[in-house]
Amino acid sequence: MSDLLSHDLSRLPDLLEQARASALEFLTALPEHPAGIRPAPPAPLGLPDAGLGARDALALFRRRYEAGLSGSAGPRYLGFVTGGTTPAALVGDWLVSAYDQNVSNDGDSLATSVEREALGLLRSLFGLPEAFEGAFVSGATAANLVSLATARQWVMERLGHDVSEDGLWGLPQPVVLGGAPHASVLKALSILGMGRRAVQGVPCLADRPVMDPSALEARLAALGGAPAIVIASAGEVNTGDFDDLEAVGQLCRRHGAWLHVDGAFGIFAACSPAHAHLLRGLAHADSVAADGHKWLNVPYDSGLVFTRHLALQERVFRAVAAYLGQGPDLLHRTPENSRRFRALPAWMTLMAYGRDGHRALVEQSCALARALGEGLAASAHYTLLAPVTLNIVCFALRSGDAARRDRLLAALQADGRVQFTPTQYAGRPGLRAAFSNWRTREADLPVILAALEAAASKLQVPTSAG
């Protein structure tokens, strides 16, 4: 053992206390910390020969980088769909690093039992049938990848090919149907060799980014019973809108198609009696993707994949080696063999706050989104691009092109009070606010609206509609 390692080991309690104090200082300052920030990076350092030791390395990191971190864990970071970290999830995540369990095999740790139990808790929270088995992955992109790899296996077995053993070369292109699939779905299709262009667009309903069930029925009927993968959205990225999962699911069952539901954030609508109806028909799905680091408010990275076809999934992701064994281990469910103990923060927050706590979190987010929508509708500078149906607010300047929108975003970032994501919707450059952080409160709304009005005023945006 090196002298520095030995010294750090002898001072481990003090080092952990310094880390705790540093984290607490950062978290305490979150309400005042810039929500978004884009500083110039410092010149890269070289690798030291002797090393600094943990205390000095921590101090160096804080001096060089901490002020340049965004307030994405804070109450007014409304970009992407980013949850915070609940106190219980933070405790769990710290312990994950201390325990350092490899959640791949069942043979030497109860960590795998925690993962299976956490998946059962989430299955109950989402209202999924017991037939669905799951796994933790790195995020919704990985969850979509796992789901679509399993769907590809299903399609090819229907056509008489075992693609997991023999590969794709020379085989027919799987039929993939969707209305407004997320970019992560297209990325997964690219990785899997099916290609982004594999998605055959299904016409959407007028003024809504969701599939028209009658158009989907026509597409499926035209296949004459040939296998197809249908991708449905439970929480469209710009508006939070949902495909009609009941109608789409019934059509998939009738025509023998695989239904994948991308529920990255929208699946958590199941927590709220006022919004759970949006997920009616979810039980028809063959695979479901979700993100824990969105509305569940656990730290990055934490994705979830559920399937009703575990044997198929394990045919794709089975790892074969004498030292691994061939039991029902979790490593056969995901692309990774070695995996972080991601389930513990989820288990902790589910146990700590229960069904009622997560219902309150979801309903609070939706109420805040509605309130922001009302404030924007009353503004002389902004207009809503879509109704607020869940936790997403899609809006735009009343007048201006993408360049003006980008100047607005730059002004908001310089102001620091709130962070939004740019988007394009209904042919217009817009902004998107996503409420999913447990820290965001009603008191934040006046601050958010004031920042928006100040930034628009600085641009001298015309108030007439254009």
Description:
With 466 residues, this protein is an alpha/beta fold. The chain has two domains: 19-85 and 357-466, Alpha-Beta Complex (Aspartate Aminotransferase, domain 1), CATH 3.90.1150; 101-340, Type I PLP-dependent aspartate aminotransferase-like (Major domain) (Aspartate Aminotransferase, domain 2). It has helices at 3-10, 12-28, 54-64, 87-99, 111-126, 140-158, 163-166, 183-191, 213-222, 245-255, 310-317, 343-377, 402-415, 444-458; strands at residues 133-137, 175-178, 199-201, 228-233, 258-262, 287-291, 303-307, 382-384, 392-397, 421-425, 428-434. It has a seven-stranded mixed sheet, with helices on both faces. Strands 8-9-11-10 form a four-stranded antiparallel sheet. It is globular and about 65 Å long.
Q: Which stretches are low in confidence, meaning pLDDT under 50 for 5 or more residues running?
A: none
- The proportion of residues forming helix, as a percent range, comes to 40-55%
The CATH C-level name of the largest domain is Alpha Beta
Major β-sheet annotation: 7 strands, mixed
Number of helices: 14
Would you tell me the structural class of the helices and strands? alpha/beta
CATH superfamily of the largest domain: Type I PLP-dependent aspartate aminotransferase-like (Major domain)
Please compute the radius of gyration using only Cα atoms.
Answer: 24 Å
Proportion of beta-strand residues: 5-15%
The assigned CATH architecture of the largest domain is 3-Layer(aba) Sandwich
Averaged pLDDT: 95
User: How far do the termini sit from each other?
Assistant: 69 Å
| Count of distinct strands | 11
| H-E order | HHHHHEHHEHEHEHEEEHHEEHEEH
Coarse shape:
globular
Give, in spatial order, the strands making up the sheet with the most strands: 1-7-6-5-4-2-3
List the domain count as a whole number: 2
CATH topology of the largest domain: Aspartate Aminotransferase, domain 2
